[in-house]
Write a structure and sequence with these properties.
The protein has two domains: 84 residues, Phosphorylase Kinase, domain 1; 170 residues, Transferase(Phosphotransferase) domain 1 (Transferase(Phosphotransferase), domain 1, Orthogonal Bundle). 34% of the residues lie in helices and 17% in strands. It contains eleven helices and nine strands. The strands form two sheets. Strands 1-2-3-4-6-5 form a six-stranded antiparallel beta sheet. 39% of the residues are buried. The structure holds adenosine-5'-triphosphate and magnesium ion (MG). It comes from Streptomyces laurentii. InterPro entries: Kinase-like_dom_sf, Prot_kinase_dom, Protein_kinase_ATP_BS, Ser/Thr_kinase_AS. This is non-specific serine/threonine protein kinase.
Length: 343
């Protein structure tokens, strides 16, 4: 694991600077019309709780941001603007925001509670890579969410496994339902050195685009880069760049070519290497124009590499006379099974 901040729960040691933690006993208390029920998780800048919306009597995820962010005018302005834009996007793969506001000097967001795991936890539980079919299903859902955001001129800026929530899907064909969360809520925009002015760690640098590092203006193509880093990790079990310290990691994002995916995980087709290299290009102009374009090419490359898939198609096409009914599709192999087991 490179990028020291990628470890889940790395915010524990920062509890003193967060709005509330296990220690402060917020559970059972009321915050802006929500009764806090349990802590779900915490990152570098916020604590997320499961809470009860007392007005509508429903469960929500309530995110309380660290108080020093509320004191930062740039962040406040951005928070207000981007919460409004994110709430305006109605998309099946974007976590719906119910309310964003401020109470007693703390910025908060109430959003849909997504039962399940975030992709960071899923990868850690899995002990590395996901099956290519699962990785592809997750990637396409995140890609569609990002492209929808880009169509609203909203750049996510912090696409990473911790911001991708994986819930149980609707049926056998859609075994996982993936939500993207935390639009524009990155502290990296305030300081990319890894620390804020109060010396708090920002988070992982495993997925940050070269133009974000160099402080150039960003557009949706920085999300293409970050998504490619995430997808690389879901397929290879490790992100594209791993270095001993953050400076070396930032350098690698800017100047080092990414390693071929097929070298990181044996058995992946070499055709996927070129797709990944394009998505991870150092300059935005050289990348895919949209996230869905990237993921479609990647999935085609991955599927094209499955032995036997082409052979079946040829056999069906050359049979003369009355075509026989197509054979039943075989049971999916172990690696293509859904990450959620049917009950
Ligand atoms: N809407 C939600 N429903 C259920 N769980 C959520 C929801 N939003 C966030 N979580 C959980 O809370 C955890 C903490 O979220 P948070 O955004 O504070 O941290 P992070 O994304 O891991 O790190 P960072 O602070 O760097 O963004 C997430 O990883 C996720 O597991
Ligand atoms: Mg987050």
């Amino acid at each position: 694991m490179s990028g020291t901040g990628a470890v889940p729960g790395n915010g524990a040691e920062q509890a003193g600077s967060l709005p509330a933690g296990r220690e402060s006993g917020l559970v059972g208390k009321q915050v802006a019309g929500y009764r806090v029920e349990a802590e779900i998780g915490r990152g570098g800048m916020a604590v997320v709780y499961r809470a009860r919306d007392l007005r509508l009597d429903r469960t929500v995820a309530l995110k309380l941001l660290a108080p020093e962010l509320a004191r930062n005018d740039t962040f406040r302005r951005r928070f207000a603007h981007e919460s409004r834009v994110a709430a305006a996007i109605d998309h099946p793969h974007i976590v719906p925001v119910f309310e964003a506001g401020e109470t007693e000097g703390v910025l908060y967001i109430a959003m849909r509670y997504v039962p399940g795991l975030d992709l960071r936890a899923l990868l850690d539980r899995q002990g590395g890579a996901l099956a290519p079919a699962v990785a592809g299903r997750i990637a396409v859902q995140v890609a569609s969410a990002l492209d929808a955001a880009h169509a609203h001129d909203l750049v996510h800026r912090d696409v990473k496994p911790g911001n991708i929530l994986v819930a149980e899907g609707t049926d056998r064909d859609h075994p996982e339902h993936v939500y993207l969360t935390d639009f524009g809520l990155t502290k990296k925009s305030l300081s990319l050195t890894g620390f804020t002015t109060v010396g708090q760690f920002v988070g992982t640098l495993d997925y940050v685009a070269p133009e974000q590092i160099s402080g150039k203006p960003v557009d949706g193509r920085c999300d293409v880069y970050s998504l490619a880093c995430v997808v690389f990790e879901t397929l290879a079990g490790v992100p594209p760049f791993r270095r001993d310290d953050d400076m070396a990691l930032l350098w690698a994002h800017q100047y080092d070519p990414p390693p071929p995916l097929s070298e990181e995980r044996a058995g992946l087709p070499a055709a996927a290497d070129a797709v990944m290299a394009k998505a991870l290009a150092k300059t935005p102009e050289e990348r895919y124009g949209t996230c869905l374009e990237f993921v479609a090419e990647l999935r085609a490359a991955l599927e094209g590499g499955v032995p036997g898939a082409g052979a079946r198609a040829v056999a069906g096409g050359t049979a003369g006379g009355t075509p026989s009914p197509p054979p039943e599709p075989p049971e999916p192999p172990e690696w293509a099974r859904p990450v959620f087991l049917e009950r």
